[in-house]
Amino acid sequence: MVVELTSNAIVSGLLLGGLYAVASLGLTITFGLLEIPNIAHPTFIVLGAYCARFINLQGIDPVIAGFIFAPVFYLGGVALYQVYFVSFEHRGRSNTLQSFTFFFGVALVLQVSLILAVGVDLTSVRAAYIGKSLTIGIITIPYRLIVPFAVGMVVGVATWLFLTRTRTGLAIRAVAHDANALRIVGLSPTRAKRHAFGIAMMTASVAGAALIVVSPVDPFVGTQYIGRTFAIVVLAGMGSVPGTLAAALIIGLLESLVVTFIGATWAPGISFAALLATLAIRPSGLFGIAR
Amino acid sequence: MNEWRFIVGTLVVLSVGALLSHTATNAYVYYAGFVALQYVVISTGWNILGGYAGYVNFGSGAFVGLGTYTAIFLFNSLAAPLWIQILGAALVGGLLGLAMGYLTLRIQGVYFSIATLALTAVLSTGIVNWKYVGGARGITVLASQPTVWFPSIVSYVFFAMLLLAVISITIARGIERSWIGRGLAAIRADEQAAECAGVPTLKLKLFAATVSGALLAMAGAPYPYYASYVDPDSAFSINYALNALAMPLIGGTRTWIGPLIGALLLSGVEQAATVTIPSEVNLLIVGLVLIGFVVAAPDGLLGLAGRRFTQGKRP
Predict the structure, then answer these.
(1) Closest to A113 (Cβ–Cβ): which among B54, B55, B284?
(2) Domain spans in chain A, listed from the N-terminal domain onward
């Protein structure tokens, strides 16, 4: 019985970690690489979830809907970065107090707008695989966890390949290290950052779709994900994509074990404890490069 | 001269408050006044770390809620009077601020803010699971008649909050005008340079985090007496986190006057708005105003006024 419970908790925890990975990827880029504290990111994920649901009502698979909306989110991200850039970086005052407050305000306005637009009730999506599960021996895995896990891993690996193997990705990582050096070799740091911010926002669209497949969503879900995603990014080591995947799996696993053996109400404390422990013991994170 | 004016001003405010707490026949004065004064304490307390040192605390709700529940715990277990509840809340809030600071302020940058983002969720979860203080269902606190000095419990709580507001402003003003305030300003301007110039940055940050935490928790302590029913959702409300940030930024974060102006303005607008519009729209408006100020007037109303003033003086 305990073996069965434990192995099920481990498997579903790792699968949940896949969802957390895709939810955190955008922050790995914006916060980890560009050092823009975009605390509105989880709220954009919730927006992505509602967009996926909107398309799903027309009978399209929610995950595909997430990819359909990704270009729209890219444009939204570019626009948001432009406002941020003109208001703060351009004037040479990328003061954390102000940029933090800016994104806090954006998150709040977005959340309240969602509440006013769709109400506070939980909403979910329909897909052929939701409600069915796969049984291997003593382990039962619902498909609604497998699909987001697969999405998370695919998007994670794709992001990693993009950042390490393409010239644009190289420029984005370079701007994180030294914006002036980029300017010297004739590239625009602002363009690289804008592009990166757009791509981070694309992941929010996909993450939103994955989120609403896993469980029903309401406009308040974003607040749970703020602590979780930031904990993952810091635990990963700022800006490390492989680290993000590993940290997301660890947090997913820990939460699932706590839910199974201690109680669901304690799960929100896990990411907070992980965050504080990381900062106290190893601030550079698991895969962090000392910068 | 300036000192005397401040002292006289404080005494005038206190005596007007004392007079009001005995003469006002309409209880609404106390309810509205309590909220406005609580906002003043929250705004001032937040600003000591957030404004002076530039370390943003997103978990004001956690500190205020912790103060509220410390008061409930002391009332339930020891039947402690209000001033003990307030002192207890200040102690616990200060310790929380110190602990958070010790874990996250040793590293420069945004980590403190991020840790405070998650703090409210964690603390309210703890309270939800703690049956002794009511758990998720909330708890009713019925205060006995306080003293012979006050006609009713609301007027007593109102005056206590006024006292807290005066105390917190005095503390903030004292910090601002001492070497501590100058050290914090140096940290905000350039922490590395401050460190190199011999400013004890970590000590100052921890001091500010402790004082700020204590004041925020103190702001929550009289709430059980005021509302007589408390549940985790209202005690750890998102409103606190948002307002604590919005008020100093609207008023101006550099001096003690900014948070005061911001708090009075916001509570006034809210009092007018709650009668006419739903609370979500209210939140939306505060959020938009916050974004507007951060983008267009980062030094708040005082900054705007100062800019106009200096421009006017220039030939």
Answers:
(1) B284
(2) 2-281
Per the DSSP assignment, residues forming a β-bridge with A142 are A133
Q: How many CB atoms lie under 10 A from the CB of residue A290?
A: 6
Given an 8 Å threshold on Cβ–Cβ distance, is B129 in contact with A265?
A: yes
Q: What is the distance between the alpha carbons of residues A156 and A149, in angstroms, rounded to a whole number?
A: 10
Give SS3 for B139.
Answer: strand
**Which residue has tokens 């107090």?**
A97
User: Considering Cα of B118, then B120, then B121, then B124, what sign does the dihedral take?
Assistant: positive
Confidence grade of residue B236 (pLDDT, cut at 50, 70, 90): confident
Classify domain A2-281 by CATH architecture: Orthogonal Bundle (1.10)
CB spacing of B298 vs A98 below 8 angstroms: yes
What is the number of other CB atoms lying within 10 angstroms of the CB of residue A180?
8
Q: What does the pLDDT look like over B71-117, one tens digit per residue? A: 999 988 888 888 899 999 999 999 999 999 998 888 777 788 888 88
pLDDT, residue A93, reads 56
In a mutational test of the B interface, the residue from A118, A276, A282 whose CB has the highest number of chain B CBs within 10 Å is A276
Rounded to two decimals, the pTM is: 0.86
Is residue A215 within 8 Å of A44, Cβ to Cβ? no
Task: Please report the ipTM that was assigned to this predicted complex.
Answer: 0.83
Which of chain B's residues have a Cβ under 8 Å away from the Cβ of A105?
Answer: 287-288, 290-291, 294
What was the pLDDT predicted at B148? Answer: 64
Span A71-115, pLDDT tens digits: 999 999 999 999 998 888 776 555 677 888 889 899 989 999 999
Instruction: Name the residue of chain A whose CA is nearest to B247's CA.
Output: A101
Partners of residue A280 in chain B, C-beta under 8 Å: 103
Of residues A74 and B269, more confidently modeled = A74
Cβ distance of A272 and B121 shorter than 8 Å = yes
Contact B185, B64 (CB under 8 A): no
d(CA B38, CA B19): 19
Neighbours of B161 (CB within 10 A): 29
Residue B313 in this model has a pLDDT that exceeds 50: no
Q: Report CA-CA distances (Å) from B253 to A136, B184, B188.
A: 60, 12, 11
* Segments making up each domain of chain B, as ranges: 2-238
Strands B229-230 and A139-142: unpaired
Give the span between the Cα atoms of B244 and B39, in whole angstroms. Answer: 8
Q: Which of B17, B2, B112, B108 is nearest to B57 (CA)?
A: B112
Give the nearest partner residue to A227 out of B117, B126, B283, using CB atoms: B117
Q: Among B235, B60, B239, which residue's Cα sits nearest to residue B135?
A: B235
User: Phi/psi at A123 (nearest 5 deg)?
Assistant: -130, 155
Q: B123-154: per-residue pLDDT in tens?
A: 888 888 888 888 888 888 877 666 667 777 88
Residues of chain A whose pLDDT is less than 70?
91-95, 289-291
Q: How far apart are CA A21 and CA A253, in angstroms?
A: 12
